[in-house]
Design goal:
With about 400 residues, the protein is an alpha+beta fold. Helices cover about 50% and strands about 10% of the residues.
């Protein structure tokens, strides 16, 4: 079984071998290569200790040296090279209290989470598969290395990683692994919300986001947060999440669409999502159930309150989740919105033919009155785009000022 290892990674392995050390690519890159997927990273494991790795290569960075990891820089790319290690006792359900380096590849592979991630490869030695990872790849199975309860007790985040890999790869959880998840689920309370969010986001952005149901079916929800658990009780038509484009805010919005906007925001804040995603999700959760009339003035009004991208996301969202009775109308809305953009109609205040500066130059004082005039003019051009010319709007502004006087 041959894997096409990148030339730079090959050179690192060969140099380590030349200096008397074992070295292999390991983990996800081996798994993905065997599945015919393109690996994101090529990690290397070696019998050389960190200081020995640093002595062999000219350009290195101490990225995780306390855990045995040195990044070797070759051709402007970084490759993590980690010494074979045995983890000490896990005291916090996430991190080993200590790390001990070992000369045994088998001992290093034994500490890893799942069989499909516990394989190593080098051109010299071929594939090292001590835990039947290939068999589980062929059987499309997520199985812990060794005792599942022990693996999840060591690091509770592995519980979510198991479900996330299941979603990304379309694999099933092996029975002992699934049973252990339910037993160790309370330990999820020890895991940082940021790490939980990363796994949930990867799950939602997978080809099988509906597997989010597994988080709830295995009793994990309450240990993420009470609000997150409550949202899971309303998780309907989870399979439809896969119909949404691969955008973080769309997939989170799909999951949280039945929550009140403020509750969706609270869940996302608890999980430490970024502010942009929170804002976009709140907007979609607020608007998606509101039918947009098939009327250009009404469509311009909706478009004026959203970025062009978020308006398109709203239409896409409604296509997936709104009732069939709205679909014909929605198609008209999509057609009209395209015509609005093609015509160059004013749908942003900044695109109006008159600005606040011009009103001030004409003698209007800045303040609430001028703001009200600008808003009136903007509403006018949203309804009647042909009115968006400077002469007409300046006359309208003068007329409004006379009425106010």
């Amino acid at each position: 079984m041959t894997i096409q290892v990148p030339e730079a990674a090959k050179r690192i392995i060969e140099q380590l071998n030349t200096n008397g050390f074992e070295a292999y690519v390991v983990g996800g890159c081996v798994r993905d290569s065997l599945l015919g997927r393109t690996p994101e990273d090529w990690d290397i494991t070696t019998s050389a200790k960190p200081e020995q790795v640093k002595g062999i290569f000219k350009r290195t960075v101490d990225t995780g040296i306390q855990h045995g990891t040195v990044t070797v820089l070759i051709d402007h790319e970084g490759y993590e090279v980690t010494t074979y290690r045995v983890d000490g006792e896990y005291e916090d359900g996430r991190h080993p209290k200590s790390v001990e380096f070992t000369g045994s590849l088998l001992e290093d592979l034994k500490r890893r989470d799942f069989t499909i991630n516990a394989m190593a490869y080098s051109d010299r030695e071929g594939l090292v598969d001590a835990f039947d990872g290939v068999k589980d790849l062929e059987g499309r199975t997520i199985r812990c290395v060794g005792n599942a309860v022990d693996r999840f007790t060591e690091d509770a985040l592995r519980i979510l990683r198991a479900i996330r890999f299941s979603a990304q790869l379309g694999f099933d959880l092996e029975e002992e692994t699934r049973a252990a998840i339910a037993v160790i689920a309370p330990n999820m309370a020890k895991v940082s919300k940021e790490r939980i969010q990363v796994e949930l986001t990867k799950l939602l952005l997978s080809d099988n986001p509906g597997k989010l149901k597994c988080v709830y079916e295995n009793g994990i929800g309450p240990y993420i947060s009470d609000h997150f658990e409550h949202a899971g009780r309303r998780l309907l038509e989870a399979e439809k999440l896969a119909w949404l484009p691969l955008k973080k805010h769309l997939r989170w919005s799909g999951f949280l669409r039945l929550e009140e906007p403020q509750d969706a925001v609270r869940i996302l804040k608890e999980l430490k999502l970024d502010n942009e995603t929170i804002h976009q999700t709140k907007t979609l959760v607020s608007l998606w159930k509101t039918e947009i009339p098939a009327d250009k003035a009404a469509i311009r009004q909706v478009m004026s309150g959203l970025s062009p991208e978020l308006f398109q996301d709203l239409l896409c969202f409604q296509k997936v989740f709104c009732p069939e009775t709205y679909k014909a109308q929605l198609n008209m809305v999509e057609q009209y919105s395209g015509e609005i953009l093609s015509a160059g109609d004013c749908i942003r205040l900044k695109d109006m033919a008159v600005t606040g500066r011009e009103l001030m130059d004409a003698g209007m004082k800045p303040g609430p009155e001028m703001g009200a005039v600008l808003d009136h003019l903007f509403q006018l051009v949203l309804t009647q785009p042909e009115c968006n010319n400077r002469e007409y709007l300046m006359k309208s502004a003068e007329h409004l000022l006379k009425e106010q006087a």
